Amino acid sequence: MDAIRTKELHKHFSGVAAIDGLSVAFEQGKVTGVVGPNGSGKTTLVNVLSGMLPPTAGVMVIGGEREMKGLRASDTAYHGITRTFQEVRLFEQMTVLDNILVVLTERSVWGSLFERHNAGHMKKVETVLTRVGLWEKRSQLAHNLSYGQRKLLEIARVLAMTHSDHIGQDASIFLFDEPFAGLFPEMIKVIVSVIKELKEAGKTVILIEHNMNLIRELCDHLIVMDSGKLLAEGKPDHVLAKREVIEAYLGE
Amino acid sequence: MGIIPQIIANSIIAGAIYALIALGFNLIYRTTKFFNLAHGALTVVGGYAMFFLYKELGWNVYASAVLAIVFAGFVGYILDKAIFRQLRLRKASQMVFLVASLGLLTVIQAIIAILFTSQFQTLANNSTESRVYTIAGGIITQTQAIILICGIVVLALLTLMLKKTMFGRAVNAVSDDEEVSKMVGIHTDKIIGWVFFIGSAIAGLSGILVGFDTGLEPTMGMHLLLKGVIAAIIGGVGTMHGAFAGAFLLGFAENFGVWQFSGEWKDAIAFIILIIFLLFRPQGIFKK
To answer: I need a labelling partner for A245 at 20 to 30 A (CA). Which of A15, B122, B199, B215 fits?
Structure first.
């Protein structure tokens, strides 16, 4: 089954097509890699899929539901979609702990004014922060973290979206936009194992990445984009051996 | 001793009023990132709601105050839902927000003038009744003591709310990055609506206090707003303790200036301080 699918998707920025009639499917429980040269529309695709940008034309289908013309950012979590950003976006003026805690927040305003977070929330925060090695940094402001730590905190925030005990928020589709870029090997290892765990748990992962070794290691399926169009797709080894892919990607 | 203690007392009272306006204004600004000029109108709404309930209907002073404050909060909430939220959905520019809120300020002040006339009104029953305290040579009325207490209590409650509650964390998250807040499932519209309610209720409270201290005029909103905004800017826009500090700095500068020069200088001094800060320390006393 497809976790998420697009049909004839277009996204234009003042007349220029960043996505140009893209029809792709992301299978549930699999890791799908998205590669392509810079400016091929990878990040735009993730922005449309996560509701940050409305598509110019075309439809998307999430989890076999009805076709819809784009998603609103406020519905992203409701549909079980969560993402990271190429340029990390954290709640800068909040502590590492609060960055995670706020994701678990009680949603009724009255309740959230007077109820304290419960032990379950704290346990969850500790689990996800420990997972990425940031528990020790929990009282620091997100703003003061190093580049790598910021990327890891975003991963932790994504993990906090799973099995949260409030309504409609068990994330099932994870969009990672270049999560490994510029990281040290030990940090890469952490994120690789996180992605593998998500896959084992039956989650759908969409991964934008330039490192072909990581793509080969992690991805079940690979999509190659060029100029907003689908250039090739299939098993990573198979796709990466194709001549047109090599040309588009490396053929400067 | 002489006149100095009284000038200090006056400065503190003025500071407390400016602080109340600045705190509400700042709460809304840091969450929505636009200069909500309509905030000034909510002081008028609160003040005149109190006037209607307390003076015209003859209700009990506490019940009137609570209802007037809630009413001001509610009007702010409605303004957000009916107008500002629609502008957010249309991704309107800062300039559009600014003009819209200026328009609302004008409209609300006009409505109040139609309903209650432009005549100066006071909420205090009989000024001779009012108790007076003498502290270190400065005279403070009971109303002014209440103003000061309200300023401190509101700052404490807001700080507590933002730092300690789950609601406060959500408000901080929306302040930091509204789009990401949405995507992680925070109901940003709900949060912003309540921020408007709380900020406007504080404005309503300030209007009531001003009504008891000096009196009400439909156009007082603009004046109070300007002082609150100046206080917020020189204190460091977006920080609660900054708004508080900025308000008292402004109160002291104005009152000592009036003493040294003359009454006409009061507003000029406020703007001179603003310009000095904008030139030499645009981030304010406390940088966010």
So the answer is: A15
Lookup: tokens for B174: 């929306």
Residue B258 neighbours by CB under 8 Å, 6+ apart: B265, B266, B269
Alpha-carbon distance of B60 to B63, in angstroms, equals 5
* Residue ranges per structural domain of chain A: 1-80+173-183+197-252, 87-171
Instruction: Give dist(CA A215, CA A242) in Å, integer.
Output: 15
H or E segment at B252? Answer: helix B240-260
Whether B61 shows a pLDDT value over 80: the answer reads yes
One CATH from 1.10.10.10, 3.40.50.300, 3.40.630.30, 3.40.1010.20 for A87-171: 3.40.50.300
Please tell me if the domain spanning A1-80+173-183+197-252 has the same topology as the one spanning A87-171. Answer: yes
| Whether ipTM exceeds 0.90 | no
B64: CB partners within 8 A, 6+ apart = B50, B53, B54, B57
Residues of A in contact with B201 (CB under 8 A): none
Query: Which of A189, A101, A176, A180 lies closest to A142 in space, CA to CA?
Result: A101
Choose the closest CB to B187 out of A101, A107, A117: A107
HSE at residue A208, side-chain half, CA atoms within 13 A, is: 22
Greatest alpha-carbon span in chain B: 61
CB pairs under 8 A between A and B: 90
Gap from A92 CA to chain B (nearest CA, Å):
6
- pLDDT tens figures, B259-278: 988 888 888 999 999 999 99
State residue A244's pLDDT score.
82
Higher-pLDDT residue of B85 and A72 is: B85
pLDDT band at A163 (very low <50, low <70, confident <90, very high): low
Q: How many Å apart are CA B259 and CA B14, to the nearest integer?
A: 14
Beta bridge partners of B163: none
Q: Which CATH class is domain A1-80+173-183+197-252?
A: alpha beta
Residue B127 CB-density burial (10 A; 0-12 exposed, 13-18 middle, 19+ buried): exposed
Query: Is A209 in the B-facing interface, judged by CB distances under 8 Å?
Result: no
In this complex, the residue of A76, A105, A112 whose CB is nearest that of residue B183 is A76
Per-residue pLDDT reduced to its tens digit, B221-261: 999 999 999 999 999 888 888 999 999 999 999 999 999 88
Report how far residue A218's alpha carbon sits from residue A214's, in angstroms, rounded to the nearest whole number.
6
pLDDT in tens, A95-151: 999 999 998 875 666 667 776 677 788 889 999 999 999 999 999 999 999 999 999
Of A74, A101, A109, the CB nearest to B167: A109
Alpha helices for chain A (secondary structure H) = 42-49, 96-101, 109-114, 119-131, 147-160, 185-200, 212-218, 236-241, 243-250
Q: Could you tell me if B11 and B254 are in contact, meaning their C-beta atoms sit under 8 angstroms apart?
A: yes
Which residue segments constitute the domains of chain B, with CATH numbers given?
Answer: 4-280 (1.10.3470)
